[in-house]
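Our working data are protein records whose layout never changes between entries. Instead of coordinates, the fold is spelled out as a row of discrete tokens. Here is such a record, shown just as it appears in the course material:
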Amino acid sequence: MSGGFTVFKISGKIRSAAFALMTLSLLLLSGAAVSAAGADRAVATAIYGGSRFPVYCRPALPLNSPGARYPGYRAEKALLRAGTVRGESTLPLSCDIMFERDVPVRLRDGTIIYADVFRPADEGRYPAILCVSPFGKEVGNIVLDDFPDRLGLSRNATSGLERFGGLDPAYWVLQGYAVVNPDPRGVGSSHGSVGFFGRQTAEDGYDMVEWVAVQPWSNGRVGMAGAFWLSAYQWFTAAEQPPHLEAIAPWGGFADFYRDVGTRGGIPSPEWAGLCTARIASRSGLVENLPQMIVRYPFVNAYWKDKEARLDDVTLPIYAAAGYNDPSAGGAFDAYSRAASREKWLRVYTGNGIADLYNPLNQADLTKFFDYYLKDMNNGWESTPRVRLSVCDAGHEMPPRRAGSVFPPASVQNTCLYLDAADNSLSMNRGYEVHSVSYSSDDERSSVSFVHTFEHDTELTGYMSLHLWAAAADHDDMDLAVTVEKLDVNGRVLSNDATGSVIADGRIRASCRAVDDSRIVPGRPRLSCSAEQKLMPEVPVVLDIALSPAGMVFHAGEKLRLTIMPYRPRERSVPFGTAEVKVPRDSFTVSPGSSYDVVPLAGAAPLDGPEVSAALQNMGAHIIYTGGEYDSYLQVPVIPMQ
């Protein structure tokens, strides 16, 4: 079996099996669907290069599903008055807003999608910012109330008009912008089937931008902004170079779904994609089944190449924000670094990206960026440092942010800390004698750690990577996970709200260890993941593991602990779509303290788990080799301290 289809070898005359396979291919290319596992169907989908690929899709949830929290289709135009609120304790509007709901947008193939438009009430032409997401444009299946402590945001931190991870119209309309929130293809009442990233996303994004540019309220100048999945939409759209898209502001996120989210380190990881997409509802379409595709196609192929944004074609101005501890953190830094634009800025934050996006200081900073590029305001933005760096110091006061020109900082000194299995240490000196240490991969609590004690105050900011010699004693593959933590002088783990306890982490499937030499970034090995190389029992192989970016200060006597363990998917609480959200029944906003009827959009029960899981490749002992010819080392980015 290959990708869920039977592959037949043919010799001599064409057999009936080959004819059946050819017929299946023709059906796929004509757009017909075929049965797949369970309720899935394989649909021929256009990808970059002009070809098609069979993409497994599942039926979308109905619009009345509790977890979808879809408030219904209602084309209307309303004036939202200053001082009114969307819900209890939300931020009151600071100005009048003209609100157009469920405005039809026609895409190039005739598909109709629906968008909400928030714009200044005064007649005129305004720049617009597009925020695209599959999670609902009004309420939706992911809202702040789903998360414990609302991700650190009080209820009155936002107006409630924003989509999750998008800009708050209450702030941006006051600044003289229109905010456009479309439900992309297939989501909600938008027509078609729901897909994620790739050629269709890019072309649809192009069409959305150009639609916005010709509206009577638009000045023809369009930006894009938003966090995480909204960031990915920006990278794909910007690569299409729509004429009226002038600047983007991706917060966190990724530009390569395969390497950053779906199959990081070569290990198929469908769980997170399943949680994010499980509550998507549509009136008529299918939903691309990302978890199934991750499991069925574990190696890079045309489908996964289609889901890597063409960053060489991203040439417009960029304000990127990235955090060390965000999901797929490495993807945000990589996308910024690889984008071809000469006018790009990076601000590195600590903590979570959603709270960072709605921070008033950061909103003002982003306003300055968009004012410069969408309003031609001479506000000095061009003198903003190209990189503004935050560094953590768990257990101590946070150091001040500092300016730079690149990430990692130009002063970085990539330094090797060699593993020594004789005493489980990390040392600047490579050991001459070979030692080994092992753990049981059948026990998820089993691991091995190596510790380095800093003699002087040291800053590590940039990319870490692990060059590791390892073997499987009883199997032909291994799935490894790696974490780096900071310990105090007594060996206790240090953490804070901004960083948690893990400074950096990584993972690898040993059979996918081949490194892609076509793209070399110091300290950032990139796996090709094009084929597998199985192990021989007890035969060591070298594994190059990229860890997430880090920025941490260690004081004299404090320690760095590297831990290697069998990879296991992290158990996550699944909050998406669970909270009950109450919205006004007869108007979009209401006067604070007034009595009004509400529509309770009841949340669903928490999901029990992902719809599909990938088989792990752990069995028996994993053996780590150090010393002699086994130059196992952790490469760390040392920044000279003044």
